[in-house]
Amino acid sequence: MAPPVVREGSDTGGPCPGDAGTAWQACAVTTHDETVIVVEDDHNISDLVAMYLRREGFRVLQADDAEHGLSYIDREHPSLLIVDIGLPGELDGLELCRLVRKTNDVPVIILTARDDEIDRVLGLELGADDYVTKPFSPRELVARVKAILRRAGTTTRAEPVTTEIGTVVVDTGRREVLCGGEVVALTTREFDLLAYLAANRGLALSRRQLLDGVWGEGWYGDERTVDVHVRQLRKKLGDELPLTTVWGVGYRLA
Ligand code: CA
């Protein structure tokens, strides 16, 4: 168990690449196995989020730039990341996300400062699992963390199934999608959405049903999230995927 480390160094907010001493504070309270890493340079927000999560028994590590966030992620094998888009230094939160995704499928919640960043967050192939727009309620953020972890814990329990939809094959055992024999890289959430649609083929599913089924019932976000993920699936799988929009309802996989 790591001892609490008090944050040192400047509060000027300037980036200090390479200077580990200023980068983060860490505090471990462990009644829980699950580690959450918060990457946010605004210490007020970071501390508040950390406090709420610790109260729920999470072990929380705080980094205030992407570089130090990355080294934490490598070392600590966290259960979840909370990443602010606006970070000092060379990498912003979106780039951090993209780097993490190359090697790791840990769930990520993005913090955005502006509403107009949301499409960018979800539209880019970052694999973020959720996003929260500032200002946000820490209580809501904690609810989302729990919903995602609950979801992550249950997806491995389901019976593996392979579904063929035309030339698209969805293999829930290997968590793999093939299109014309080629593996298509999907984010965790895109995969879960496709697997859910595949398990309910022929049914018109509302956005709410999809949110409950894929994001979990504790998730209370914007229904647009579904649309953005559907857009990504269509982009990646193209016309091979018979996924139709049912006007006034939601989506159906034929
Ligand atoms: Ca920030």
- CATH H-level superfamily title of the largest domain: Response regulator
Order of helices and strands: EEHEHEHEHEHEEEEHEHHEE
Q: Show unreliable segments.
A: 1-31
- Principal-axes geometry comes out as globular
Number of domains: 2
For the biggest β-sheet, the strand order reads 1-3-2-4-5-6
- Quickly name the level 1 CATH class of the largest domain: Alpha Beta
**Portion in beta strands:** 15-25%
Helix content: 25-40%
The main pleated sheet reads as: 6 strands, mixed
- At CATH level 3, the topology of the largest domain is Rossmann fold
Average of per-residue pLDDT values: 81
The assigned structural class equals: alpha/beta
Helix and strand topology:
Blueprint: E1 24-27, E2 35-39, H1 43-55, E3 59-63, H2 66-76, E4 80-84, H3 93-103, E5 108-112, H4 118-123, E6 130-133, H5 138-155, E7 162-165, E8 168-171, E9 176-179, E10 182-184, H6 188-199, E11 204-206, H7 207-215, H8 224-237, E12 243-246, E13 250-253
Parallel strand pairs: 2-3, 2-4, 4-5, 5-6
Antiparallel strand pairs: 1-3, 7-8, 8-9, 9-10, 11-13, 12-13
Helix pairs in contact: 1-5, 2-3, 6-7, 6-8
The site of calcium ion has 6 residues, from loops.
